[in-house]
Write a structure and sequence with these properties.
7% of the residues lie in helices and 57% in strands. The protein is built from 6 helices and 41 strands. A hairpin with a 2-residue loop joins strand 18 and strand 19.
Length: 767
């Protein structure tokens, strides 16, 4: 840390020191009665250190803090889906409900985004059974394509960990699935509740004496949506067969998933008048939070994925694992959009269009992982390769009018606007070693070499006539190291520190929209593909783990991540158009504190996260209607500085558990207001206020294997927002179009509304 260390970092250092002083009086007693203490500490937790399975390592030996949860943890959390669970229970994660659909969430971990929205800067890598599921077209993650009822374990690895490959700028999420070995028997789970929500999850697993095992699960979800014109449905099937013998095991898994989701995005809230100079007044959001702006915004995703995993124990201290996969994904999307444009001085006209885009991605690859225990060393060697073929096309239909519900009508035939054929290839070779210097000190060093190639052939269209641009191909190479130390201060207490580097290469969509002289409108347009630099992230982290007993522990981490040549979307003078370019430096730094304990029949988990996410150079950003000037220290939009969570479960009686979670955040900067302006020369604080939301749940174990449950989200029906964006608004507070051509659009802050109070009831039966 340098002389620019913020006050929060100084406070964190003091906090860690105080924790050490608090622990000091206990250390002597712990050492005096080590045997007794070991009996009260929970069993040693072993975690993996790479996307593929291998010989695990004790968590306390790692120089960073891994968060890991099981299927039963997720079940006890009683949440709608995986993203909801992670936002409420994993330290450092926040959520932006930009799309308004529960399966199209935009989450962030330590300020690095993981979104399903094309064009969003992605900073986390995601793996499913060792397969990287960041889509090759834009590094997005389609949460609706993950078979949630088949998930056995979720592991969140922090920092720029090179072992997890491309896109691990701020961390990595690794999902592993169930099998007939880990989840034998049959389970049926039925749910129904507010907004017409219905969900069914069914699974069956089994094994035989000769080592063969099988597992199958299926999920179906349907809702009318809590906002207008926002229904959604999805379904998936996961199937796995395999065999486990004395020294080897293999499995073959298939995922088939389909979804049809309507996410109708942001709604105008504060209105600042035509020039942004008026005192703010309420808008559509204040009238009715379940309204939408324009519609419909529909996304259909299809996925077919086949994965083969193999592990062989070569001897008691050596394991070899390998994986191969093929996956095909399709996305078909359309959105009804409108804007009010000035066609002559003082004269305005409404324009309505429907934008269509389609993509098809075929990916395949494999990886191998070798783990060996050698005296005081635990060695891991590995390699992975991934390749993909991408086809993308966009078209637009012009419409004559808007309906009373603000949907484009009387539309003409869609004409193509852009297209691309792309290829990507990535090769990674990595190695790591955890060296036990003595019984207290562990040093972990790792390195990974990444090579990537991204190739594009873009087709532009003028009045429906296509012209193909020359093909472009770009190569990227990076050698990413990491080094860390973990030191056991005493039984149950350890300190750790780590420094690591990782990289992200530009995606096809970013390279296809990287020319300031030929801008595009996201996510539908691609125009040109000049060179972009790869993003390189370096993270420094230190902290402490203190396990007081089997049911009490405390963890504290302080970190700083620096991104070099970050890729951002920048504005041009043409309204609504922009291009991707490198931004020299951004920074995310903060503090993560978490604790858990049991007090009699109450299980308690508490966490606090401080995040300081800023730009660290002068530049201009995409602002929709104007250029946003940023300076070193300007906050990045959409990320709260403070987040607090508390989760409690109270076993009222042996069969009844009642629990709840409280999530509280501070305010966040609205996109387009980073510089404190809402229009050129007009100052205003358009940030989104912080919020506190209470969620509650209960579970009643009526009989062996039979549970009834209920959950109520947003118990007090709190009105809250999770994102803000400055843009021009063409409707009045009642959602009506202007009746006069002399009426200009107004500068407004658009927000992502949080869902009102809602409930779900259900039954779970296992046999």
């Amino acid at each position: 840390m340098n002389q620019l260390m913020p006050q929060a970092f100084r406070l964190s250092a003091v906090a860690l020191s105080v924790a050490g002083l608090f622990a000091a009086p206990m250390l002597h007693a712990q050492e005096q009665d080590a045997d007794k203490e070991e009996k009260t500490l929970k069993a040693v937790e072993v975690v993996g250190t790479s996307p593929l399975p291998g010989i695990g390592i004790e968590e306390d030996k790692l120089p960073y803090d891994v968060q890991s949860v099981t299927a039963e943890d997720i079940e006890r959390g009683q949440t709608m889906n995986l993203t909801d669970y992670m936002a409420r229970n994993l330290s450092g994660i926040t959520i932006n409900e930009v799309q308004g659909s529960p399966f199209q969430a935009d989450i962030a971990y330590r300020g690095f985004r993981l979104s399903s929205i094309l064009g969003s800067a992605q900073g986390l890598s995601v793996y499913l059974d060792g397969v990287r599921v960041n889509e090759p077209f834009g590094d997005v993650v389609n949460w609706d394509m993950i078979p949630e009822s088949a998930i056995n374990n979720v592991t969140l690895v922090p920092g720029s960990n090179p072992i997890y490959g491309l896109n691990t700028l701020g961390g990595a999420l690794a999902f592993t699935t169930k099998s007939g070995l880990t989840a034998p028997g049959t389970e049926v789970k039925l749910q129904a509740g507010s907004f017409g929500r219905k969900r069914i999850d069914v699974s069956y697993g089994g094994k035989s004496d000769d080592g063969y095992h099988h597992f199958i699960s299926a999920t179906a979800f349907d809702e009318s949506g809590w906002r207008d014109y926002s229904p959604g449905r999805l379904g998936n099937v996961f199937a796995k067969i395999g065999r486990q013998q004395n020294d080897s095991s293999w499995d073959l898994a298939l995922v088939v998933a389909r979804s049809n989701l309507f996410g109708n995005a942001l709604l105008p809230s504060r209105n600042y008048g035509p020039d942004g100079a008026d005192s703010p007044t309420g808008s559509m959001y204040e009238r009715k939070r379940d309204w939408i702006y324009t519609h419909s915004d529909n996304t259909r995703n299809d996925l077919n994925m086949l994965t083969f995993n193999f592990q062989r124990l070569l001897n008691d201290s050596t394991e070899l694992s390998a994986m191969a996969y093929v996956r095909e994904g399709k996305r078909r999307a359309y959105s009804g959009d409108a804007e009010r444009e000035e066609i002559a001085p003082g004269t305005y006209s409404d324009e309505a269009v429907v934008n269509y885009n389609n993509s098809r991605q075929t990916s395949y690859g494999g990886s191998v992982n070798y783990t060996r225990l050698l005296d005081a060393h635990q060695l891991t060697l590995g390699a992975s390769t991934d390749a993909s073929h991408i086809r993308y096309g966009a078209s637009q239909a012009e419409c004559d009018a808007l309906s009373a519900s603000r949907s484009p009508i009387d539309c003409g035939e869609a004409e193509p606007t852009s297209g691309v054929r792309g290829k990507t290839f990535a090769l990674g070779i990595y190695a790591s070693d955890t060296w036990t210097l003595n019984e207290r000190t562990f040093v972990t060093g790792a390195a990974r070499f990444n090579h990537a190639n991204v190739a594009n052939t873009i087709t532009n269209y003028d009045n429906g006539v296509g012209s193909q641009r020359p093909s472009e191909s770009f190569n990227y190479n990076s050698l990413n190291p990491s080094l860390g130390v973990s030191y056991k201060v005493a039984s149950g207490i350890s300190m750790f520190g780590n420094v690591g580097q990782s990289n992200r290469v530009p995606t096809v969509i970013e390279l296809g929209c990287a020319d300031p002289n030929d801008p595009c409108r996201l996510p539908t347009g691609l125009q040109a593909d000049p060179y972009l630099k790869q993003v390189v992230a370096r993270t420094v982290e230190f902290g402490t783990r203190w396990r007081m007993s089997s049911d009490s522990e405390f963890t504290a981490s302080v970190y700083r991540s620096e991104n070099k040549d970050d890729i951002l979307f920048r504005a041009v003078s043409v309204s609504g158009l922009g291009y991707f370019s490198n931004f020299s430096r951004t920074r995310r730094q903060g503090i993560d504190l978490s604790a858990r304990t049991e007090v009699g029949p109450v299980n308690l988990n508490v966490s606090y996260n401080y995040l300081d996410a800023t730009y660290q150079d002068d530049g201009e950003l995409f602002g929709g209607e104007r250029n946003i000037t940023v300076r070193p220290g300007t906050r990045i939009a959409g990320l709260p500085k403070h987040t607090f969570r508390i989760a409690a479960d109270w076993r009222v009686q042996p069969k009844l558990v009642v629990g709840g979670t409280v999530v509280a955040t501070s305010s966040l900067v609205s996109q387009g207001n980073e510089d404190g302006l809402i229009a050129d020369g007009e100052k205003a604080n358009a940030s989104v206020k912080g919020y506190t939301v209470l969620n509650m749940h209960a579970n009643y174990a009526a009989a062996k294997g039979l549970d009834y449950f209920v959950r109520v989200n947003n118990v007090f029906d709190t009105r809250f927002e999770t994102y803000g964006l400055m843009a021009l608004n063409m409707f009045d507070q009642y959602g009506n179009q202007a009746s006069s051509s002399a009426t200009p659009p107004t500068v407004s802050r658009f927000v992502a509304p949080g869902a009102p109070r809602n409930f779900m009831v259900g039954v779970r039966y296992r046999f």
